[in-house]
Write a structure and sequence with these properties.
single chain, alpha/beta
Length: about 475
């Protein structure tokens, strides 16, 4: 249950943060519900609009029309300029058939809320969270049509007293009070269990794994990608395909930033793809575009700028407020962030083969890298060191034999050239097959087909989508 939506990549509780959950195949999103002055339900956590909009005042002192005049996006990043607050009916329409809702009722009218959920035919996709008094009102107006959840604190009330008095469909229990015995007791009564793991002490793999082992149904988290990957590995073990995170975990942090690399490392990415360019004073930095204009606060061509000038450029604010301290990383700085297991997928945009080879050696990556660049560049690298793992592109199937004749570590094949026989031919020649799904091929059908053909590495902007394909393939094979 993702806390306020994917609020690292879009404003919390916004239509963008919630749509991102659906796009990543997240099952549940937690949102906060409040009443306006004219008794309309809107989705916002705080009692005031001050922190998350360009306005001021209490939510319950403003009408819906007044709230709709405010900008709820630009506080997070200018790319969200003009984003409006969403109403509960708008949210229900967005979520239907896409993502389930945990409605955290901060200040609500139970009758209006129940009517909205039932009118939207969302009663099978929602759970209402509140205190026992509110839950009784929800039951009064909706019977048992809408699931109800509240907090269980074992230090304050016995199990039997709680269940008999509250009669919830689900309970929320803080991670430090949750046990496998409690899960079994609630499950025996037909009650689902949600572990609240928010906060740096709890929202981490050690606690998630303990919650999985305890048998919880849900976890409320600020780190949905982390939990999804840990859960899949917990259930499935080794995956049948590797993933290359494009420009780092660029779905969740600014592309080619240290934050994006570190996020990819934390998700245990197999490969982390980064783009390398050279400055006017011969320093190597991570940047995809020829200029810094699109992804930074600066402007100009990278190889016309000094490393010192680039160090002053902000590459995070455009993406979102949490990343406003990010700066253009140097190649060495970036590679140092890879840790001890992730493989470097190096797109050599503008760097000499000699300099790149030395960086690979300096960071002990000879057994954990692949270099993407033209066949000629790859040939020059292999002349310098036969052990370099080259990854030349292959855009046309007619070029396969010629590409394989250079005995590369792998080939970066155009997605349209993939087939079972093509991949089998590459494997027979000792070459791995990488392909870039980015764009029109970022969908379950294409991922699953490539996995069935035994592709080695899928490069993606949406790692959780590839993960979902892996899960579906595992289920289909049982």
């Amino acid at each position: 249950m993702v806390h306020r939506g994917m609020h690292q990549l879009a404003p919390e509780n916004s239509i963008k943060a919630i749509a991102a959950c659906a796009g990543d195949f997240i099952e549940w999103v937690e949102v906060d519900v409040r009443l306006t002055k004219d008794r309309q339900h809107v989705i916002i956590h705080d009692a005031t609009v001050d922190r998350t909009s360009n306005g001021t005042g209490r939510v319950d002192a403003l009408t819906l029309d007044e709230l709709k005049q405010l900008d709820f996006g630009e506080w997070f990043a200018t790319r969200f300029h003009g984003l409006q607050i969403q109403t509960l009916p708008e949210l229900l329409e967005l979520a239907k058939g896409k993502v389930n809702l945990y409605l955290d009722c901060k200040q609500v009218d139970a009758e209006i809320l129940v009517q909205a959920v039932i009118s939207a035919n969302m009663q099978d996709q929602a759970v209402v969270y509140g205190d026992p008094k509110l839950l009784e009102e929800v039951r009064k107006f909706g019977g048992n049509k809408i699931a109800r959840m509240t907090k269980f604190r074992p230090q304050q009330m016995s199990f039997d007293e709680f269940v008999n008095n509250v009669e919830p469909a689900a309970v929320e229990i803080d991670a430090d009070h949750l046990t496998s015995e409690l899960c079994k007791e609630f499950h025996a009564r037909g009650i689902k269990v949600q572990a609240k793991v928010l906060g740096s002490d709890w929202d981490q793999p050690r606690i998630w794994l303990a919650m999985f082992a305890a048998g919880v149904d849900w976890l409320q988290t600020d780190d949905a990608p982390g939990i999804r990957f840990e859960d899949a590995r917990f259930r499935l073990g080794k995956f049948p395909v590797q993933m290359a995170f494009h420009r780092g975990a660029s779905r969740y942090a600014p592309e080619n930033s240290l934050a994006a690399i570190q996020r990819a490392v934390s998700l245990k990415a197999d490969y982390i793809e980064i783009d390398v360019r050279t400055t006017s004073d011969s320093k190597c930095v991570l940047m995809h575009d020829r200029t810094v204009d699109r992804t930074s606060s600066g402007s100009g061509v990278v190889n016309n700028l000094t490393a010192q000038a680039l160090a002053k450029v902000d590459i995070g604010t455009w993406f979102g407020k949490p990343f406003r301290d990010q700066r253009v990383p140097g190649l060495s700085e970036g590679l140092a962030s890879f840790g001890g297991t992730a493989h470097a997928y190096l797109d050599a945009k503008d760097i000499s083969p000699e300099t790149l080879l030395q960086a690979i050696k300096d960071h002990d990556l000879m057994e954990r890298h692949a270099v993407y660049q033209s066949p000629d560049y790859c040939r020059r690298l292999r002349e310098l060191s036969p052990g370099v793992r080259t990854l030349p592109p292959m855009k046309n199937l007619n070029d396969l034999e010629k590409t394989l004749s250079a005995k590369p570590y792998g080939i970066d094949a155009a997605w349209t050239s993939l087939s079972a026989s093509m991949i089998e031919q590459c494997h027979a020649a000792g070459a791995r097959v990488f392909s870039d799904a980015i764009g029109t091929h970022e969908n379950l059908e294409d991922y699953r087909q490539a996995i069935a053909w035994k592709i080695d590495v899928i490069q993606t902007d949406f790692p959780l989508r590839v993960l979902r394909a892996i899960e579906l393939e595992a289920a289909a094979s049982k």
